[in-house]
Amino acid sequence: MKLHHALLQAIAGAALIASLSGCNDEKAEAAQAAPRPPAQVTVITAQPQDVPLTTELPGRTTAFRVAEVRPQVGGIVLKRLFEEGAEVKAGQQLYQIDPASYQAALDSARADLSKAQASVKSVSAKAKRYADLVAINAVSRQDYDDIVATLQADEADVAAAKAAVDTASINLEYTKVTAPISGRISRSEVTEGALVTASQATALATITQLDPIYVDMTQSSSDLLTMRRAISGGEVNGALASEAPVNLIIEGAGLRYGQPGKLQFSDVTVSESTGSVNLRAVFPNPEHELLPGMFVRGIVNQGVQQGAFVIPQQAVMRSPDGSAIVWVVGADSKVNPQPVIAARAIGDKWLVTSGLKAGDKVVTEGVLKIAPGAPVQAVDAAAPAATNVAATN
């Protein structure tokens, strides 16, 4: 009896397993037979627009002017007439060199001039009398010619004496050492009592003009050529030649400089070592926030790209050969790849200059779920998600 009961239980268990297996097979067949729903993808609608083009370039600040103050005459420094590190104006006196010897030289030159002028006065009167006497043969022609030559020599002496007076006066004025430009002056390299000489190698001080200030930047020659061709071809409205607006970011601090500048010129030669071209911009610097030698990044506004498309970077794929493609949903709700030209990155987006037309629906999310020709359910990126709508209700 026990054996019979166990056999009945085994048969019942096998029947149950077979029944469950049959149900699972039916469900699998039903799942295979049912069509897969279209994949949901997020899209944006491409619209052409005029896009400002900027290029961020590394650069360094350079003083607008730098002048080394040197004496033009020798002597002992009697006074220093400025505060180190202060602002000075062009023509302001900075040092006083002992003027005694130069004043004496000027007095001597003036005396020589007076002597030469007196001699001319005497000989000139004699020459006039000889002119009357030679007409009546009271003096010889030779005596008259000699007195005329003497007068001319004395007049030349007067001219030389005047030049000597001017030179002595200039040298005396040079004992007052003045600022050649306006700007901030450095520390003084000499003190009162120091002996200085004309055209010495050591500068007495250095003046640096900080307002305005230059920013020297470098740009790849290939990028510069590409932009110039785009401008000449009419694709870009703008010009690199002169006065293009430039903004500045101070490196390290990451601060944006408040005063806009303008591009002055681009160099005519390409560096053999780096393949880059030098650009120079000028910025107002009234508060002296920028100091020479600072590393900065210049944002150069190079023009406006007309009729371009700006799409998120995640929407652009790269094929094995490096060309760019996007996935576009057609009117039949099927998705297909579309080759495009992604000219440059603008922040977190790509600037597409070719391959798209107005109204194209470009896939931005869900690319991994699609295949060429597959039907999709396109959801506009600007539309709120269904879950969010339900939550608000």
Structural description of this entry:
This protein is of the alpha+beta class and 393 residues long. It folds into three domains: 39-51 and 307-392, conserved putative lor/sdh protein from methanococcus maripaludis s2 fold (Beta Barrel), CATH 2.40.420.20; 53-64 and 210-304, Efflux pump adaptor protein, beta barrel domain (Elongation Factor Tu (Ef-tu), domain 3, Beta Barrel); 72-207, OB fold (Dihydrolipoamide Acetyltransferase, E2P) (Beta Barrel). It contains five helices and 21 strands. It has helices at residues 2-33, 100-135, 141-174, 221-232, 386-392, and strands at 39-45, 49-69, 75-80, 87-88, 93-97, 176-178, 183-185, 195-196, 205-220, 236-237, 245-250, 255-256, 261-266, 276-283, 295-312, 317-318, 324-329, 335-346, 349-354, 361-365, 376-380. It has a six-stranded antiparallel barrel. A hairpin with a 5-residue loop joins strand 16 and strand 17. Helix 2 (100-135) packs antiparallel against helix 3. The longest helix is centred in the N-terminal third of the chain and has 36 residues, at 100-135. 21% of the residues are buried.
Per-chain topology:
Elements: H1 2-33, E1 39-45, E2 49-69, E3 75-80, E4 87-88, E5 93-97, H2 100-135, H3 141-174, E6 176-178, E7 183-185, E8 195-196, E9 205-220, H4 221-232, E10 236-237, E11 245-250, E12 255-256, E13 261-266, E14 276-283, E15 295-312, E16 317-318, E17 324-329, E18 335-346, E19 349-354, E20 361-365, E21 376-380, H5 386-392
Helix pairs in contact: 2-3
